[in-house]
Amino acid sequence: MLITVEGGDGAGKTTLVRALAQHWNAAGVPLQTTLEPGGTAIGRGLRNLVLHTDAELSLWAETFLFLADRSADVAEIIRPALHRGQLVLCDRYADSTLAYQGHGRGLDLDLLQRLNHAATGGLQPDLTILLDIPPEQGVARGRADGGDRIADAALDFHRRVNHGFRAIAAAEPHRVVLLNAAQPPDAVFHAALAAAEPRLRRARLLPME
Ligand code: Z5A
């Protein structure tokens, strides 16, 4: 089973992935975590390049760096873990490319869907937890932790990204669960558990109650 956690800058994805991983590890769920960009060795190099280069990067060059990272993550980490029967918890995945490069940068959404399909071999999350936060609030949290090429973009960009994530959630309500990420971390964690654990039980990754 593949669960992805998505959302704007500073939404609390990393905080939530850590808390869920700790909780499910303690419950004995076989678990693999990863993140994009940067889940693999090649991905860590790509992450540094795409987020921190001082050089000019075209929008498509930026996009292909994220896609190359995703392709490596799926091939090296996600598919092998799924074959081992593990639950995979991924901090960002294909929806981020649609929200940031599509809705945010304005690149063609249909083409990005096809490129995501090529990069992932069509692997779709079973569940996506979308952490929704007003962009002003998320950006302020993210900046307090140090920015990057994309996080430092104008607030208008982050508003389009937020609108993009909400459009994805509205289009795929069975896959995407939207949570209010402006709540305290513990409330976000419990809302995420409530969304995920019935599915984990159905997949026999957790015992039935
Ligand atoms: N990007 C892209 O454009 N296209 C793609 O295809 C992909 C990514 C995959 C790096 O991603 C950038 O890449 C990202 C999108 C782009 N840039 N932006 N924007 P990333 O996921 O590595 O970086 P990020 O989104 O900037 O993550 P982040 O700043 O680390 O945010 P986060 O993981 O969502 O939040 P956090 O680290 O858990 O929390 C941030 C701070 O808020 C921290 O001090 C926490 O203690 C605090 N926090 C967390 N939760 C709460 C709550 N609930 N209340 C109060 N405070 C909280």
Q: Would you give an account of this structure?
A:
There is one protein chain. The chain has 209 residues and is of the alpha/beta class. The protein has one domain (2-202): Rossmann fold. It is built from 8 helices and 5 strands. Strands 2-3-1-4-5 form a 5-stranded parallel beta sheet, with helices on both faces. It is globular. The two termini are 19 Å apart. 44% of the residues are buried. The model has no long low-confidence stretch (mean pLDDT 96). Bound molecules: ligand Z5A.
Compact summary:
By secondary structure, the protein is α/β, with parallel strands linked by helices. It is built from 8 helices and 5 strands, in the order E-H-E-H-H-E-H-H-E-H-H-E-H. 44% of the residues are buried.
C-alpha geometry: globular
**Mean pLDDT over the full residue set:** 96
Largest sheet: 5 strands, parallel
Strand order in the sheet with the most strands: 2-3-1-4-5
The rounded Rg comes to 16 Å
How many helices does DSSP assign? 8
| Ions and ligands | ligand Z5A
What count of structural domains? 1
Beta strand count: 5
**CATH superfamily label:** P-loop containing nucleotide triphosphate hydrolases
Q: Pick out the low-confidence regions.
A: none
- Helix and strand pattern: EHEHHEHHEHHEH
CATH topology descriptor: Rossmann fold
Label the structural class: alpha/beta
Termini gap: 19 Å
- CATH class placement: Alpha Beta
Percentage of residues assigned to helices: 55-70%
